[in-house]
Design a protein that fits this description.
With 321 residues, the chain is α/β, with parallel strands linked by helices. It has 16 helices and five strands. A five-stranded mixed sheet has the order 3-2-1-4-5.
Length: 321
């Protein structure tokens, strides 16, 4: 599907009663909708003047979530997402390093010259300084165009050797009523039950939460472990985020990339042991007890991530003297 076809699709009336209950029809509609979103996002990222508002994509995603609810979350759980990025771009990594070191992203890009192994040198080339927003979200799945954000937590921390995270907040977000009986998806991982979200405003409708998040993200670069996940979800759920990201006013920093770059132990441990996962990294740095597990809740995981990054930076004497 090309961009013009995707825009035509977005303007077609969607009449749920004509397809709900017909699995083949619903699945066909889902595939068309997701192809349209992918075409539009690719155009948005490639063209500074794409000729359409990002709201078109957000509206398609909202429509797709309602459709996926009817298909059934369990049917789609293991289906890959065309809109979930596997990693941040090299440009994003250079921007993140530059932000924390007071260097230009272009300077770092020239030093790296496309060699990702060179990030290990660039991360330690200059002292780390400034302040970051740590953030983590819990969701009902991996696909941002199909699922919902149900928990978000954040803290702010100065990038110093002995700083303590502060201004912590955690918010639960609601789900459609059908999940009262169906159950909260992935509850076996995040342990969020219906009682936690009952009566809460869904993330997409929580304009006060949107305003707070965008204000913080514009003020501080944000850290997340596997930040491509948060970035993909905020693109599809947080109005205004895509525009600010493209303008360079929001800078995500991936702590998993930091771990893979500067923790030499990652290269010696078996890949199947997931050495760069937050849980395993934190155990190696002593910020999580050997017999403890990662909580998989927004604020708790954010706090663990920030303390682990701090421990790693201290280990490498990376903070400004």
């Amino acid at each position: 599907m090309n961009v013009n076809q995707a825009l035509e699709y977005s303007m077609q009336p969607f009449i749920p009663m004509f397809i709900y209950g017909d699995y083949d029809a619903m699945e066909s509609e889902r595939q068309r909708g997701e192809e349209a979103m992918k075409a539009l996002i690719d155009e948005w990222r490639a063209n500074d003047e794409p000729g359409f508002s990002f709201d078109v994509i957000l509206e398609l995603a909202d429509r797709n979530r309602e459709l996926c609810d009817q298909i059934g979350e369990a049917r789609l759980r293991n289906l890959s997402s065309p809109l979930l990025a596997r990693s941040l771009s090299d440009d994003d990594t250079c921007a993140g390093i530059g932000k924390l070191q007071g260097r230009g992203a272009n300077v770092i890009a020239r030093a790296v010259r496309g060699d990702r192994d060179a990030y290990a040198v660039e991360w330690v080339r200059k002292p780390i300084k400034g302040c970051v927003l740590g953030i983590d979200i819990e969701t009902t799945g991996r696909a941002p165009e199909r699922g919902y954000i149900i928990n978000v937590g954040w803290e702010i921390m100065e990038m110093t050797s002995d700083a303590t995270p502060h201004d912590a907040e955690a918010h639960y977000c609601g789900l459609p009523e059908m999940y009262r009986e169906a159950g909260v998806p992935l509850a076996d991982i995040h342990h969020i039950e219906w009682a936690d979200i009952d009566g809460k405003i869904p993330f997409r409708q929580n304009t006060a939460l949107h305003k707070t998040l965008l204000k913080l993200m514009k003020k501080y670069p944000y850290m997340a472990h596997n930040a491509a996940f948060e970035d993909s979800w905020f693109m599809m759920h947080l109005p205004g985020y895509a525009e600010l990201r493209r303008a360079g006013k929001i800078i995500p920093i991936d702590t998993r990339q930091i771990c893979r770059s500067i923790d030499e132990e990652v290269r010696t441990l078996p890949r199947e042991s997931a050495p760069a996962s937050l849980e395993n990294w934190a155990r190696r740095r002593g910020t999580l007890a050997a017999d403890a597990d990662e909580r998989h809740l927004g604020l708790e995981d954010t706090d663990l991530m920030l303390r682990t990054v701090q421990a790693e930076f201290n280990r490498k004497s990376m903070f400004k003297a």
